[in-house]
Structures are given as C-alpha cells and as structure tokens.
Amino acid sequence: MGYIMNLLTDEFISTTNGKVSLKQLLTGDQHYDLQYGFDEVQLAVLQLLSSLTTVLLKPTMRELSSYLELGLTAAQYEKALKSIDVNSFDADHFMRSVSSDKREVSTDKIAKLVSGIECGSSKNASGLFSDMSRVEKTCPHCAPVLNYNLHMNIKGECFGPAGATGIRGGGSLTTLISGTTLKQTLLANTVAVDFFMNLRGISTANDDLMWSNPPCDNIYYGHQIGLMRGLFALAYHIGFNELNEPCVCDICGHASETTIREFSRLRYLGRYGGTKTGQEAGAKWWPHPYTPTTKTVDGEFPVCAKGEGWQSWQGLVSYVVGKNIEGKNVIPAPIVQQYTAMGYGHANLLVGGNIADQGSVVGRVYDLYAMPQHWDASLERVTKVIDAGLEIKELLVQALNKLFGVGYDKSFVIGIKQQTVDQYTANAHSIIQGLLVDINRSEAKILRQKALTSLQKEALTLYRQLMRKYQNELPIFKALVKGERILARVTKVTN
Ligand SMILES: [Zn+2]
Q1: What's the number of domains the chain is made of?
Q2: Are residues 233 and 191 in the same domain?
Q3: Ligand 1 centre from 130 Cα, in Å?
Q4: How buried is residue 262: exposed, middle or buried, by Cβ count under 10 Å (0-12/13-18/19+)?
Q5: From ligand 1's centre to the CA of 51, what distance in Å?
C-alpha cells in the first residue's frame, strides 16, 4: 500500500493546526489542541501519546520533572529515538501481532473500535453523541489509534463470546492529569520508570513489546509484565483491510488516499488479571498507570463506571487521594500518585470512560475538573463540595423513601425514586464543576455553604416537580409532602 507511517516520527496526530508528529507536539513552541470527531477517541489519543512518550523517553522522576519544567528539545527527542527500535512503531507493526494458529479470524466494521458505539447493535445502546452510521471509514493515521482504543478501553463482552478483555480490565475509568497545554498534558501523563517500579515492588519483568513477543501462556501473570509491555498490552491479533480508494476520514476529518472500513481480529487465548478467570488463577491485577482501582476481599479491580446514573463527581475525591466509598478502598491511578509525589501544586484532572450497562453503552463521560492549588494539601475544599453533593443526595433518598409503604407497587416506587436520584446526580454535575472552578478563590467554609445551598435548591426543584406530577394521586402526594420536610431541612455549616 505504499508508504507506511511511523508513530514516533510521522505526522499522524490530528490537531486544530493540521496533522503533526509527536516530536512537533513535544518539542515545538506552538500550542496545539487535538481535533477528533469523538471525545472518546480524543481521550484515547491522550493515553496513546503519553504511553508513546513513556516508551520513547523512559524517564526517571528527576528527568521527567526537568522535562515538565524546561521542556524537551528536538535533540533530546532524536537522541531518544536512537535508543529504541523505531520500526516496532511502524503502523503495520504497532500493536499488530501475527497469529501462528489456524483459528478463523473475525471481521468487523471499524465502528466497533470507537468506544461508546462498539455495542451499537444492541437495543439499549443509545450512545449520547455517536451512532453507528457516523463511523464507516477511517484513514491509515487513525487506525493505530482505534486499535489502541480497542485494547485499552473497550469491554471484551462488546464482541460477544469471541471478545477478550485486555490488561485494563475493559471499560475501566481513566484518570489523567490535564496540563495547561497539550505538551504539558502529555508529559504529565508520561510514566516515570523508577516511580512505577517502586510502586510495584519488583525489579525484573518482561518488557518486550507484545507484537514482537506475544504471551503464549493461559494466564498472563501481572508481575511478569513490564511497563513498556503493559502500556501496549494486546488481547487480539489485529489486521486492517486498507483499500486503494480516497476518503474523508470519519475519525479525524482529513482526506486520505486510502480507506479502511473493516478490521480483522483473533482473540489471544490467555487471560489477564483484569478478568475473573485470571484473578482466580492468581494472575493479579497489573497496575495500569491511568486506572484507579478498588481493593476488596475478592482482590484488586479497576474502577468502572457502571449504570446510567453514574457521575464522575461522586468519586472524584477518591480518584485523587483515595477514600473509602461504599465500603471499598479506592486507590488513585499511579499517574495521579506520581504527579503528587513529584510535588506539583496544581493540576486539573480528566476523568473519562464508558458507562457500560449489561455490555452496552448508555452514556459516556469525559470530564475536566479544576483542582485547587497545592491540591494534595488543600484537597479539603474539593472534599467539602463533593460531600455536600453526597449529603443532599442522601437527604433526597430519605425524602423519597417516604413513598414506600403507601400501598403502591414496589417496583413502581423504586422507578420513581431512581429516576429522581439519577436526575439529581446528573444535574449536580455542572453545579459541582462550576464550584470547583472557583476553588482557589473561596474559603472552604464559604465554598461548602455555596455547595449546600445550590445543591439543595436543585434537589428541591426536582422534588417539587415530582409533587406537581402526582398532586392528584393523594397517597403519593401526602408521602411526598412528608418527605419534603426532610429535604428542606436547613443545613447549617458548622465546620
Ligand atoms: Zn483519520
């Protein structure tokens, strides 16, 4: 198919200033912003580029700090290129191992590689932004991005029984540091080799890229997987069918000489610790740098966004400092721990991922949160805002619980309750984001009072809408009146 592009040297990244290379992004003075048609692809590009930067630079914490402060020079980039096998990052090699067995490969439309619509044919896959028909063709620049997205972000079950769950567990949350520029963001999400090795407490691990040396065991033991191997861990052999016809790419919007409409896949036979089978066989969780995890008696698992009503603000504090939520101990993603350990006072946090419900996607989140200056020390202010949101949610639940026991069908009542609570958590989202933007300027006590006032108002508005709706159904209405008192309780801020 003629020219093969390389991910470390060629201009394949779509930005508001056209296509650029990783080198231009990291070493140039110009500011760029990513430009992709789907927000989940944009998130995957951030993950991919930071992982590529990690493999290229393999920095220590000290080196990474210096890059973050002084930038990276073109000469440093070129020098780093000489130290690695650049050919492994040619598009026809990158994350594309070749199967040696005789199993039949499956072919699918490339729409399946865009998270959020990968389950687009199932009945409750009502993607918020995307529908299947919007992704039919891609250019060769975007194919490696989609392949990466498949391996790191998409749930295996989206491919039915032939699906495989990758090293991140599939459908897990991503937390990234958001810098002031794209360059800063990529460097802030670059993993320091020494930090990661210390975190894992192991000194040796296989660091071969999987497409050069695929795993061949039944169980892929986490402690045997090194950082470089894990960042680009595979679960499928992937092939792209590149056609000699021009197109405008549905992913980046650029014109291309060639077109890719389909990809082929063949599942690896082994299991990672991110799957139940893998955990039970003692594979252990591989600490993916961008994944927050929970530790329970059953083991360690990636945090996933589950259910339609899930909102990222509800777990925000736990993603940053770790906090006990619902009896589970959440451990912040290594990349967040690393940033804190490097002593950076200020960062905003990106929280993203799919919200999967029974294998289909009913919503997506890709949120940016403002964090306070010296966030590690003054996280109390974020906590106060989030806690206010959760407290009001609890009062709303208590108020709605008055509906039980007035003689209506239980599932009918549960339905009313759930819908109202979900709506509150969704609406609270923008209120909380707005408050967090102000966080450096407001005193903790004032901030908490503001949070309580506006969130209580929001909850009351929803609750009173419900009262109006049922004003002619007396038993329900009476129960709601009782509940209103709970919700209207004036919450005085004492701390
Ligand atoms: Zn493209």
Answers
A1: 2
A2: yes
A3: 16
A4: middle
A5: 20
- Residue 284 Cα distances to 220, 249, 271, 292, 389, angstroms: 9, 39, 11, 15, 35
Ligand 1 geometric centre to CA of 259 (Å): 9
Does the predicted TM-score (pTM) go above 0.85? Answer: yes
Confidence of residue 113 (pLDDT cuts 50, 70, 90): confident
Same domain flag for 161 and 186? yes
Ligand 1 centre and the CA of 352: distance in Å?
22
Chain-centre distance for alpha carbon 310: 14
Residue 104 included in any domain: yes
Are 141 and 252 in contact, with CB atoms under 8 Å apart? Answer: yes
DSSP state of 164: -
Distance 489 CA to ligand 1 centre (A): 54
Ligand 1 centroid distance, CA of 123 (Å): 29
pLDDT average, residue stretch 7-27 = 97
Residue at 8 is within a domain: no
The boundaries of the domain holding residue 152 are 13-362
The CA-atom distances, in angstroms, between 391 and each of 388, 397, 401, 450, 489 are 5, 10, 15, 14, 12
Residue 116 CA, ligand 1 centroid: distance in Å? 18
- Residue 146 CA, ligand 1 centroid: distance in Å: 10
Q: Is the pLDDT of residue 118 over 60?
A: no
Q: Is residue 53 part of a domain?
A: yes
CA of 431 from ligand 1 middle (Å) equals 36
Is the pLDDT at 125 greater than 50? The verdict is: no
Q: What is the DSSP letter of 275?
A: S
CB atoms within 10 A of CB 308: 14
Report the residue count for the chain.
495
